[in-house]
Specification:
The chain has 25 helices and 23 strands. The chain is α/β, with parallel strands linked by helices and about 725 residues long. Strands 2, 3, 4, 5, 6, 7, 8 and 9 form an eight-stranded mixed β-sheet that branches. The protein has a seven-stranded parallel β-sheet with strand order 13-14-12-15-16-11-17, with helices on both faces. A six-stranded parallel β-sheet has the order 18-23-22-19-21-20, with helices on both faces.
Length: about 725
Amino acid sequence: MQTDLEIQFLPGVGPRRARLLKEELGLVSPSDLIRFYPFRYVDRSSITPIASITSDVAYVQFRGRVITRQLMTATGPLPQDGQPIRFNTVKRLIVVVTDGGGQMELVFFKAIKWMYEKMTVGSEFLFFGKPQSFNGKINFVHPEVDNLTRDNFEGVGVLTGVYPSTEKLRNAGLTDKVMQKIMAAALQTALPSVKETLPAYVLKEKGLCDLRFALKNIHFPKDAYSLEKARYRLKFEELFLLQLSLLKARYHRSRAENGIVMPSVGAAFNRCYEHLPFGLTGAQKRVIKEIREDMRSGRQMNRLLQGDVGSGKTMVAVLTALIAAGNGYQACIMAPTEVLARQHYRNIQKYLAPTGLKSAILTGSSKAAERREVDEGLRNGEISLIVGTHALLEEPVVFKNLGLAIIDEQHRFGVEQRSRLWSKTTDGRPPHVLVMTATPIPRTLAMTFYGDLDTSVIDEMPPGRKPVDTRSAGESKRLALYNFMASQIEKGRQVFVVYPLIFESEKMDYKNLELGYEDIVKAFPFPKYKTAIVHGKQSSADKDFNMSAFVEGRAQILVATSVIEVGVDVPNASVRVSESAERVGLSQLHQLRGRVGRGSEKSYCILMTGDKLSKESRRRIELMCATENGFELAEEDLKMRGPGDLEGTQQSGLPISLSIASLAKDGMILSDARNYASTVLEKDPSLSSPENECLKNELRKSKYQSKDYSKIS
């Protein structure tokens, strides 16, 4: 049978619905449809007595005989006087049914004429829907109506899938019931041609059902056991193929002898290490050892460095750059913002002072004369380490011998942007890559976002770092907050006030920011107090001026959006106020909190919320106040919010979109799939054996040809 026919030719679809299914859900063919899975199921196997129905249940099925039906107009009931009914004046139909033990009111606003003619007094039907309470009475609005058959009369029903939908689809009549009919037609068309995607040995060793059984029972389960078998098979397949694609790239790279060999640490490393004003933590030493092994292995390093805010990643980055310099190579550190690049540069200059090595900075605002000087220093090798933003990717920038690229806050750089660094090496060999993130990444996400990178974690904070006192307060405590801020400023401290920026273009976010800034200027008037403001709609010059005023202590309060200000290090800032904290994810709140507590004074993080919080928001705020463990918070954030984005702003991010598996819920399946993928590749690294041909074919599909997250090629 044809599987590639257009979706519009399936019964119940047609050209208009086909266009909507493509636009709204990306579904083009029957083959697409059968891989579009229900997100939940309702149990249609039991019939509930009407007298037992309450408004707090989700969905319920009951049977009933029609005892009255009443057409309602805008002015009241339509008289039933035998005159022809003008349905264009009717606003709704009210039907009352009974099962002998109780009565139930049903309300219909659509298809009134058809429903009125169908539901004659004395006729019996099976109803399914969501009960709701109106004026103290329970009723059903637009329940599904089925004719009684022997099967459903006896309550022999099935689990019924509910599919993801949109308002446009629902308005076009693509209800759950219609989707089920379309899905049945798609299965009949496409299922006979479905080929198994997993080898027979995988099915046997992992105890998986075959693909046709899984696809049939994920849509129309024979019973709960068959549904579970189908669901597990499809989740394992999805995660196994994803991990296989990631690990295959990593496996081949780890065996390719094309990396730059850096056999020694060099004198600059030793001089810097000897002059450090503090000792490294055990975690920092362990991570440097792991990096050192990569750099002298002869293979390109592709390593993810995770570490909480303040754990000492920058120090590790500097020492890694000095290993490159000690072997005659240049290093670059790329930061996501100019503010962060300049902060890195200031810190790095202190560390490099004893080494005699030359460093430089290059950003979008660098003057032409500066750029020429930097370009010349990079070309002739005089500059050993350069810190910069996206400006490093621009065409004129050419290195004499780039050996190491360190990328801070990796998720802010597109792979296409970073690929330009590849062309800046002279001998064609890829530079070593160290990706750093201060966002704690749950294990399941790390395996997926960065599945082809080696991972190092700095899981130890430097000694003497004081915990941040985290508290929450509602809007009614605003005056108390301002009094507390004033008392801290009197002690010579500074205050961050951060507004969430969920979307760059969202006007409400900027309106809140501007109104908040006005309130603070009123509460803390000039000249006694100076308040700076930084946000994305300012020019670079304005941002730099205001940020510098705060960093250098000329302003006591900084009002900013979280996207601009993350990463800024001001040791004298001891108070962080996070406005509308209930709108922000745990990981982002935790990262922002890490910007205080960097000096010797006690620091505070105040989470300002609305006075009415949802249960989930309250749980997030309570967790923030209870723990400073970033990884613990990240795991909870994943469970609550899903894997959309680690920062809290909306990004896609996943190497492929998952159709049925959940990174928040299926961590055990993911671990098992990854371990098994590793076992398969150990035996057959190129998947060239006949039994693995189907795996090789699957990995050729476009969704597995995603950009390599680790390489900059």
